[in-house]
Amino acid sequence: MVDAMVLKRDLSGAVDRGELFLQYQPKVNVRRQQVASAEALLRWRHPTRGLILPNDFIPLAEATRDIDRMTLWTIEQVIADQQLLRADGRDITVFINISGQLLSNAKFVKRACEIVSATDVPLGFEITETSVIRDPVSAIANLNIFADHGIAIAIDDYGAGLSSLAYLKQLPARELKIDKMFVLQLTSSNRDPLIVRSTIDLAHALEMEVTAEGVETPAALALLSVMGCDMIQGYLISRPVEIEAFRQYMRDHKDA
Ligand code: C2E
Ligand code: CA
Ligand code: CA
Ligand code: CA
């Protein structure tokens, strides 16, 4: 596909040209109704094509191996934005999505740990189970290294890909995120509520907190609350927004 080839070429310089930027989306604690943490989501402002979303360029960056530089840039940008939140008196953990292939990239792991060691702002990494299953020995070892550096680990997209209870138990994760494919139809499907409820119970049995992503309606929130879901994330609370708008959101929700 010509399009992908052109994009791949453009992508290699996108970091240096300052074309990447981040949006932040809060995760809210269901019971306390407070912002618990946030997720950083990468965007690419292409000079001629306009806004490109990560599903259209992360796979290309993984193929060209630009993903390690892009992710290191993301970690540094999140830390810089965290200083702004801290100046506002809001010290929340910000989670960064980490591609599976980076979990077996020793150079990336070393560099990421160096960057994280030089700061004391709270950070988290979101990883999918599928990415652990690909190369479990080094993935689990490196996740433990990240956890030892104080990075919170969350399992992303739970239920959407390959899943293994054997690995789930071995991961140093304290949060499990239920994929939005189960949450979006929670109140209109017969099957999804059963899957969501059993996932919440499973996570709690493993002493993990549960986040539901893709919460768009008050009805979904109400059902998740009854099911004992700990945190929610979705358009009902806030769309992903750039740092200045996110700071404003945090000011407007000081105790909520
Ligand atoms: P994800 O980690 O599962 O992120 C959740 C996606 O759902 C985001 O899409 C978010 O904007 C969207 N979303 C949030 N709330 C709602 C909602 O209520 N309804 C619906 N329908 N969607 C909602 P986005 O930002 O397009 O990101 C897509 C994927 O790209 C992410 O899925 C993640 O896997 C990947 N990604 C994003 N940033 C990065 C990054 O810095 N590095 C890596 N490796 N992957 C990233
Ligand atoms: Ca994520
Ligand atoms: Ca997710
Ligand atoms: Ca996803």
Automatic annotation (TrEMBL):
Residues in the signal sequence: none
Domain of life, per lineage: Bacteria
PROSITE patterns given in the database record: EAL
MF terms (GO), sorted A to Z: cyclic-guanylate-specific phosphodiesterase activity
Gene3D superfamilies: EAL domain
Domain EAL: 4-254
Protein name in the entry: EAL domain-containing protein
Organism: Sphingomonas panacisoli
